[in-house]
Amino acid sequence: MHREGQPGTEVHLSQLYRDTIVRHARNPKGTMPIGTAQIQRDGYNPKCGDELLLRLRLKDGDTDPIIEAAQVEVHGCTICRASGSLLWPHLTGSRISECQTKLTRFREMFTDSNPDTALLEEAAILQSVAAFPARIDCALLPWTTVEAAFRAWSKP
Prior knowledge:
alpha+beta; Sufe protein. Chain: A; three-stranded antiparallel sheet; 3 strands; globular
């Protein structure tokens, strides 16, 4: 077994830090402030030190509201920043129920042997992180923060 930094790990690490992940980490989507938000949640990964601010503005008047605007601001490692960026398009313009389905699919990428990733589109690239168990929490933090925010949010 190879360890990070030892000879032979270059191939493994290049798999983890694919171009898409690096591109999203360097220029993350969804970090701009959105003004008034009905849902706000902080996330923290004590294993890596990643921190996250999630803010969602909803369209009023529906039992399954549409997320009108989302802000996912991550301060942390490359994987967590990329994950937040890849999550953002799944929030904006989606109904909460649709997001919940995608959140479940995302989590399954790290637990199921043959997960259904079609709904996740480009975010499915993060499945490569499953080969690095210590980094799975980094990829999950933005998505689990949304789950926690939905659980804490009370419908109008």
